[in-house]
């Protein structure tokens, strides 16, 4: 039994998000994935069967598995981000089912921010729509490494191969503008399960993998940046007990890179250099550690280090500065204040900042840049200049999704009001 538990804990975890226009079938697709992969408990299945009967449906409505809010069930839409967890013999999965409506753009940004894969649904009857452009732009903005375009409702177009090929051509033109590199295409019918977990007998012309096979086998270990060493210090361990009276360790989650005992490192912001003495995880000594592991490090020299400092490699130091440009998604009903002051949280570092300027806003339905409009409201995305009260050590978001991201917090309410990707 212990071997089974250890094997499960060591399984690779893939996070993926679903996005699509309203009624494209996102929730039904996730329900089908869970149902056909035997990841639903009997009581859950019985509950959605009863709910489907009450709604007058002759078939089990698998979308009810993820439409958790009462308002979602009443309207038949997704409003909030619904997270679901399941596993197959090959991988563990966390799904973020994100809304399709334009007024819930912020929900998609937060739900997709940690994803390895974005599953973008396109209705076979309608092809690439404005919502498809919006979701693809956000996936590109968030640097999600892999996109799987699932052309759904193929049963409503008689499983026509030409329809599928035309949508592939439309999306490839869009992907070229957004610099999306790894794109896969799968024709499916989420309602009936064609090419979701099992291969479809209705589309013999499609010789590619099913959606589940792609999710189980897509290569994600290289999604983390293993070349630049970044370790934001989250907590300083000082037991001050008789047994460990001189012990000083630094706990945190590795943002990128590979760390080994004996490596020469620099501590920021002091700039002092030392070497790694030990790396521990759950009281075990490690020969090496890499992103995204949470570990405890000790150093050979006593250096004044506190939460918010960063341990980095000798080479390829992060950028340092108090003026940064970010692509900002505004998350709050109260518009952003030009010249306003906000708390800024970057990795484990907390500081204050001032909004200096809005360079342009993005029309995320057409991808046009809007110059001259300095107002940024709920769900809008803009390129913004910030000035911080002290120097920030960071990487561009394209280089490192952890050290290249930040959030803005309202000083008065403590609400998170903005999510930013450093340019």
Structure commentary:
By secondary structure, this protein is α+β, with helices and mostly antiparallel strands. It folds into 3 domains: 222 residues, Rossmann fold (3-Layer(aba) Sandwich); 84 residues, Elongation Factor Tu (Ef-tu), domain 3 (Beta Barrel); 104 residues, Beta Barrel (Elongation Factor Tu (Ef-tu), domain 3), CATH 2.40.30.10. It is 20% helix and 34% strand. Helix 6 links the parallel strand 4 and strand 5. The chain is globular and about 70 Å long. The N and C termini lie far apart (48 Å). The relative contact order is 0.11. The N terminus is likely disordered.
Under the CATH scheme, the architecture of the largest domain is: 3-Layer(aba) Sandwich
Q: Determine the fraction of residues in helical runs and give it as a percent range.
A: 10-25%
Overall 3D geometry?
globular
Tell me the number of strands: 23
Ordered list of secondary-structure elements with their pairings:
Elements lengths: L1 H8 L3 E8 L5 H11 L5 H13 L15 H6 L6 E6 L4 E6 L7 H8 L4 E7 L6 H12 L4 E7 L8 H18 L3 E6 L23 H7 L12 E3 L2 E3 L11 E5 L4 E2 L4 E5 L3 E10 L2 E2 L3 E2 L3 E6 L10 E4 L5 E12 L10 E6 L2 E15 L4 E3 L10 E14 L10 E5 L6 E7 L1
Parallel strand pairs: 1-3, 1-4, 4-5, 5-6
Antiparallel strand pairs: 2-3, 7-16, 8-9, 9-15, 10-14, 11-12, 11-16, 12-13, 12-15, 17-21, 17-23, 18-19, 18-22, 19-20, 19-21, 22-23
Descriptive key words:
8 helices, alpha+beta, Elongation Factor Tu (Ef-tu), domain 3, disordered N terminus, 6-stranded mixed sheet, 423 residues, globular
Structure in a nutshell:
This protein has 8 helices and 23 strands. The protein is of the alpha+beta class and 423 residues long.
């Amino acid at each position: 039994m212990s071997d089974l538990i250890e094997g499960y804990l060591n399984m690779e975890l893939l996070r993926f998000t679903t996005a699509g226009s309203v009624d494209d079938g996102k929730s039904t697709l996730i329900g089908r994935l869970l149902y056909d992969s035997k990841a639903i408990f009997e009581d859950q299945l019985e509950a959605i069967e009863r709910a489907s009967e009450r709604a007058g449906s002759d078939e089990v409505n698998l979308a009810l598995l993820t439409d958790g809010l009462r308002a979602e069930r009443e309207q038949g839409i997704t409003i909030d981000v619904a997270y679901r967890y399941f596993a197959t013999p090959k991988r563990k999965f966390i799904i973020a089912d994100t809304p399709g409506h334009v007024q819930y753009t912020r929900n998609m940004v937060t739900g997709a921010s940690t994803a390895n894969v974005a599953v973008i649904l396109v209705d076979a009857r309608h092809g690439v729509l404005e919502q498809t452009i919006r979701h693809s732009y956000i996936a590109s903005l968030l640097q999600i490494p892999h996109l799987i375009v699932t052309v759904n409702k193929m049963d409503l177009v008689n499983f026509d191969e030409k329809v599928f090929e035309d949508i592939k051509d439309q999306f490839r033109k869009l992907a070229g503008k957004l610099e999306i590199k790894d794109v896969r295409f799968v024709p499916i019918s989420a309602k009936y399960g064609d090419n979701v977990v099992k291969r479809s007998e209705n589309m013999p012309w499609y010789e590619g993998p099913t959606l589940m096979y792609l999710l189980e086998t897509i290569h994600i270990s290289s999604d983390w940046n293993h070349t630049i060493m970044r370790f934001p210090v989250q907590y300083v361990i000082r037991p001050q007990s008789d047994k460990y009276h001189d012990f000083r360790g630094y706990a945190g989650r590795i943002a990128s890179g590979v760390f080994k005992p004996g490596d020469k490192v620099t501590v920021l912001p002091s700039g002092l250099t030392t070497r790694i003495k030990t790396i521990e995880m759950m009281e075990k000594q490690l020969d090496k550690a890499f992103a995204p592991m949470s570990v405890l490090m000790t150093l050979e020299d006593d250096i004044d280090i506190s939460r918010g400092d960063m341990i980095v490699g000798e080479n390829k130091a992060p950028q340092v500065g108090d003026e940064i440009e970010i692509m900002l998604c505004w998350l709050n009903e109260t518009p952003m204040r030009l010249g306003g002051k906000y708390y800024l949280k970057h990795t484990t570092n907390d500081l204050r900042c001032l909004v200096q300027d809005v360079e342009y806003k993005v029309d995320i339905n057409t991808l046009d840049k809007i110059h001259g409009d300095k107002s940024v409201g709920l769900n809008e995305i803009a390129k913004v200049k910030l000035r911080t009260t002290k120097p920030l050590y960071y990487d561009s978001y394209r280089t490192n999704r952890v050290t290249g991201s930040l959030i803005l917090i309202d000083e008065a309410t403590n609400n998170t009001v903005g999510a930013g990707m450093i340019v």
